[in-house]
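Posting here for the record, re: 2BA.
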Amino acid sequence: MKLILAIINHDDSQKVIRGMTQNGFSVTKLATTGGFLMSGNTTIIAGVDEARVDEAIGIIRDMSHSRTQLVPVMTGMEIGGMFSTMPTEVMVGGATIFVVDVDRFEKV
Ligand code: 2BA
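Prediction output follows.
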């Protein structure tokens, strides 16, 4: 078994979870926060048979979209005693996916 950890945009989470559950995958949704933007995103964890990992990743890929987000970046210019910021576009997602080995899986 493998554990898939997929960090996705909150707006895509319902579609991804529906797509996975409809195809027989068990999924847990966690509310998470990205360290760079410090804004909410969603992390999905799913224990998956090794033979179905690519199928699960395909569903996540199909249901998540990349988008641009504006972040304020310090310009280094001081205006009236305050540092100014300029909005800069950052590309986020579709999905950031980790696949890790599961040593042991039990439901007791
Ligand atoms: P955030 O950390 O909020 O990052 C949002 C987006 O900001 C990233 O999109 C990337 O385009 C940009 N970014 C992140 N760190 C940066 C930096 N140090 N300098 C410049 N730009 C930076 P994605 O790469 O699509 O990542 C989306 C979210 O996935 C991240 O949200 C984070 O929550 C997670 N993530 C991405 N890579 C990760 C990793 N290696 N380990 C753990 N979480 C990761």
